[in-house]
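Bench log, entry 3. Co-assembly request; chain sequences pasted below exactly as received.
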Amino acid sequence: MVRNKKLKVALTYNVKPEESSFESAQLPLKLKNSSSYNDTYAEWDTIETVNAIKDALEHYHDVIMIEANENAFEKFKAVRPEIVFNVAECENGISREAQIPAMLDMLKIPYTGSDPLTLTTCLDKSRTKEVLTYHSVATSKFIYAESLDDLRDFRLSFPVIIKPISEGSGKGIFNSSLVSNLKDLSERLTENLSNYNQPFIIEEYLPGREFTVAVMGNNSDTEVLPIVEINFNELPGDLLPIYSFEAKWVVDTRDNPLNIFTCPAKVDKVLEEKIKDVVLRTYKVLRCKDWSRIDIRLDAQGEPNIIEVNPLPGILPKPEDNSCFPKAARAKGLNYEEMINKVLLIAAKRYNLL
Ligand SMILES: Nc1ncnc2c1ncn2[C@@H]1O[C@H](COP(=O)(O)OP(=O)(O)O)[C@@H](O)[C@H]1O
Ligand SMILES: [Mg+2]
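Structure output for the full assembly:
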């Protein structure tokens, strides 16, 4: 690992409020009717994650903490860090993940990760798939739905999965999100529109194996980390083979960890090359910077299709937390501290800071 030049780094973040800590939820009995879980802050980091990132950066740099709230702009302006390590998801609106990067662009302060355009596009699963489709990157057929009217002339093949257009970390995706007829779909859409104040994406179900792939770098230096496979046979029998909110947060807990991932995934050379190719093309056409994690599933023909792109990937520090980006980094021989500092280094190089 290249020794970094000492930089004045600001770490910008949001921390999950204590009261919504659903990780401690007991294994629920009524998994089928589970859309009542509180998933409001599923995307936000815990204080433990934020501290782990801080510790990693402090190994080489001076670190200033700046919470991603309404006061952030003034703090960035006063502190003027040389670079910002950005893990802020923010709270309000469809541009929330782009808000801090937009502030930093305005202040001409460098930051890690993708720019506001990419962050906003990837936060909208439908816009993401539109870009991919234009560039002939495989992704399942879908429609955008903001009212029941959008189900008129419904032409997708069942089963379909219904997901909030702009959430992450399993928010709004439950066992019940997979539906097999128009009547159930209408009911689910009606219920979801009233629970989540946003449109939905309805897409054809990809029945095959699922992978998630971490990517680091820029341009010709972009590398695909060892592929992670999600083993759905580890889930309790009443859960479907989707990586839902229940699977992510309710049945897979620190006290009761599931052996749900294999990394490196057991894939043959042909499939591995196909996955790498589709991942790199996705990273390029969505103009991701520095790092991202890309979700993939195989279609009925065994071809990899893109599910979604996460330009602000989850990075829980403890191996037992089963966080995929750090897991892939470990399989590549990078521990948490090395992984964080590598992302910073990649960004610093992009801005010619080194
Ligand atoms: N078209 C699809 N076909 C099959 N499974 C899907 C599809 N879309 C999503 N899923 C399942 O739902 C999970 C969560 O969907 P995803 O879009 O990745 O949401 P999140 O942002 O919460 O990670 C995926 O990991 C996958 O298991
Ligand atoms: Mg996902």
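Residues 295, 308 surround magnesium ion (ligand 2) (CB under 6 Å). The chain has one domain: 8-350.
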